[in-house]
Amino acid sequence: MRQFDNQYFQKIKASQKQIFKSLENAERDLSIAREDRFLIVRFNYAYTALLKCGTALLQHHGYRVRSVPGHHVKILEKMSGLLKDENIMTIGNIMRSKRNKDLYDNS
Q1: Interatomic CA distance for residues 74 and 65, integer angstroms
Q2: CA 105 – CA 22 distance, rounded (Å)
Q3: Which helix (H) or strand (E) covers residue 100, if one does?
Q4: Which has fewest Cβ within 10 Å: 5, 9, 67, 99?
Q5: Contact at 8 Å (CB) between 38 and 63?
Q6: Three-state SS at 72
Q7: Under a CB-based contact definition with an 8 Å cutoff, are residues 77 and 102 in contact?
Q8: Mean pLDDT lowest for which of 31-35, 52-56, 93-97, 102-106?
C-alpha cells in the first residue's frame, strides 16, 4: 500500500478513547440509518457511518484525515488498502457518487 499523502493525512498518536469515540459516532449514525423512515436519510447516515469507521481505522494506524476536497475518496482508498478489500472502495465510491449527485445536482 502506498504511503499516506501529507495533503490528506496528518500523523497523530490517537488514544484508545479517541478511536472508540469515532466508532461510537459511526454506530450512532448506523442506528439512525436503521431506524429512519426516509430512504435518503438512511442512505446518507449509512455513508457517514462508513466514513467514520474509516476515520477510526486510520486513527488506529496513527493518522488523522485532513478536511480538504477529495478526502472522502482518500478515506475509502485507505480503508480498502488497510483491510485488503477492494469492495470497500467500489461500494464506497458508488455511495459517494450517489450522495454527491443528490447533494449537488440542480436538475
Answers
A1: 9
A2: 30
A3: helix 86-104
A4: 67
A5: no
A6: helix
A7: no
A8: 102-106
Q: What is the mean pLDDT of residues 35-49?
A: 94
Domain spans of the chain, in order of start: 9-104
Residues in the chain: 107
Burial of 19 (0-12, 13-18, 19+ CB in 10 A): middle
Quick one: pLDDT at residue 2? 62
- Hey, is 49 helix, strand or coil? helix
Quote the pLDDT of residue 106. 61
Q: What's the pTM?
A: 0.88
Percentages of the chain per state (helix, strand, coil), in multiples of 5 = 70, 5, 25
Cα(39)–Cα(4) distance, integer angstroms: 35
pLDDT at 57 over 90: yes
